[in-house]
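Write out this protein's structure.
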Amino acid sequence: MPRHDPTPPGYERRLRAWKRYKQLMSWMVILAIVAVLLALIYLKRGGHHVPPQMIVATIAGVGLSVLLGTGLMGLVFVSNSAGIDEQADRGDDLDSRG
């Protein structure tokens, strides 16, 4: 009867790092929504008419900027927490092809 492959080393560590990343990004979505609302309030309080194109551009620009910045920074922390940086420092190849 065939045997199942064992769990690769560091699997649980990587799993925890990705779980933490997903939790972090859920909070960052809330932060992005708050940032967009604050930007829209700032525009509205300027006293001028705000065209719909400006509202859409503000939502896209502020929201995506916050999510992109926090998402990329979060991936840096995932890389460190999952041990991928340590493998790169040692020169280990993720592929075991010689």
